[in-house]
Amino acid sequence: MAERSVGRRAFLRSTGFAMGAAALAACAAPAATGSDDAAAAAEPAVVTWWYAWSQLDPAVETISGLESFRDHMGGDTTVDYRGSTNTEAVLTALAAGDPPDGGSNMDYPNLWTRGVVFACNDWVDGSDVINPDDVVDAVWQGGFYDGNLIGVPSIESFLWYGLNYNAQHVEEAGLDPDDPPLTWEGVFEWHKALSKFDEGGNVTRIGLDPIDAMAGEPDFISLSYGHQWWDDETQAIDLNNELLVQGIKMQAEFFRHIGPDNFAGFRSVEGQGAWGGAFNAQAQSMIIEGYWHAGETTIQQPDVAVHNRATWAPVPGFREGAKIMATGPHMVQIFKEGQNPEGMFKVSEFLHNHEACQIIFEQVGWIMGIESWLPTIDADAYPGLRFYIDGINDVTDWLVGRRSPLHWYVNTQLWELREQVYRDLITAEEAVAELQTRAENEWEAQGLS
Question: Do 334 and 235 lie in a common domain?
Fold first, then answer.
């Protein structure tokens, strides 16, 4: 078992992320009365929870069947959960006046700025279950906007960045799995050595998709190159930046080596998708993902997982030695127009119990940053996980990610413009200039000024 805990205060200080007294501001969540509680306990209740993940369902089913869960909910409660449901589906339900009670793995800041979710400060302040001091600070404080807790951090929230690789592929290519590259230049050499083509020139295995999973997001490539495109304090957007230009140029080289159309054809094959699909099929040798890759791969494809190893995500050669990492909360957001907001909060409370954390860890492979539970994790339960458990104190560059209300908008636009770069339709300089303009226009269009 892992014997050391993550230092919460050190973790927060290292991110440079802190909240002022405004974090204690009152919220608009409805206060339950004693009579309301009694009525809820006397009648069967339904809590409707939608989330974008596809793999969480078995754990939710297990948790909702626990006697301890029923006791916590105060009666016979059914959790009507729906996986693989995205933000757009929730917006449609909101427009129809029939949203779920809660949502997770969605565009949290955007839903908050739309005014459709409760702030949860008062609920948490009155909770005997949730202890904010027992949650890694950067995770907990990452749930605050303008002093409001916009959801209950829970489910899974730990470390986001690492280069995971198939050691068997590496050995077969004549490379040393015990000496992985830590720079983009070195990873590109591995990419060329690990990629395979058939006699017709069609790619049959890729080394690394440089924008797969976490690597595709603007937060990642910016931090890798020593830049942050979003300033949480001033709300300034800095995308038209030379460091981002360099990052896009580097990522483009991975596509050019394979060929843009060749790469697209590879991805179109069933079972060779992103976010672990091609890695599980052994058609992809490396992937930049968070700690969850270790557990998910073990659960989904154990014969592949035994070859998985993890190390630091790459940085450019001029930043060699930098060790980057991000974190941030997933959460349960509670919709104002939901039918059972108090019930949804009670579900989110239970997710802070060690019993629920352990079920999610064992059945899905996920970790929630609960300080008192983290030391109980077996760092060797999943190949590659130990890197994330042991490496936390060696990080040099921290980020609390996905903070901008425009994060997912910028992410989508970056994907479009980056493809134009690696297809040589525009330059990287033109791409970041256009990205900056689009982001500023969207900021105005959403009334965020």
Answer: no
The neighbour count for residue 355, using CB atoms within 10 Å, is: 14
Residue 7 gets which letter from DSSP?
-
Cα separation, 49 vs 99, whole angstroms? 10
> Would residue 383 count as lying in a domain?
no
Q: Is the pLDDT of residue 33 over 50?
A: no
Amino acid (1-letter code) at residue 76: D
Task: Provide the mean pLDDT of the chain.
Answer: 92
CA distance 162 to 214: 9
- Bridge partners of 206, per DSSP, are 284
Q: Order of strands across the sheet with 77-82?
A: 77-82, 45-51, 102-104, 331-334, 152-153
> DSSP code of 157?
B
Task: Band the pLDDT of 268: cuts 50, 70, 90.
Answer: very high
Overall pTM > 0.70 = yes
Quickly state the pLDDT bin for 449 (edges 50, 70, 90): confident
Distance, CA of 74 to CA of 344 (rounded, Å): 13
Helix (H, G, I), strand (E, B) or coil at 255: helix
Report the CATH number at residue 28: 3.40.190.10
pLDDT given at position 29:
63
Q: Is the dihedral of CA 355, 360, 361, 363 positive or negative?
A: positive
pLDDT at 302: 98
Q: What is the DSSP letter of 144?
A: E
Q: Check whether residue 148 and residue 54 sit in a common domain.
A: yes
Q: Does 67 fall in a domain? A: yes
- Burial of 378-416, coded b for 16+ CB within 10 Å and e otherwise, reads ebebbbbbbbbbebbeebebbbbbbbbbbbbbbeebbee
Indicate if the pLDDT at residue 35 is higher than 50. Answer: no
| Cross-strand bridge partners of residue 75 | none
What DSSP assignment string belongs to 304-335?
Answer: HHTTEEEEPPPB-GGGTT--EEEE---EEEEB
The pLDDT value recorded for residue 361 is 99
Are 256 and 357 in the same domain? no
CB distance 291 to 386 below 8 Å: no
Task: Identify the domain containing residue 417 by its residue range.
Answer: 163-326+403-445
Q: Tell me: the pLDDT tens digits for 144-199?
A: 999 999 999 999 999 999 999 999 999 999 999 999 999 999 999 999 999 999 99
Quickly count helices (H) and strands (E) in the chain.
Answer: 21, 14
Question: Which has the closest alpha carbon to 267: 419, 165, 409, 414?
Answer: 419
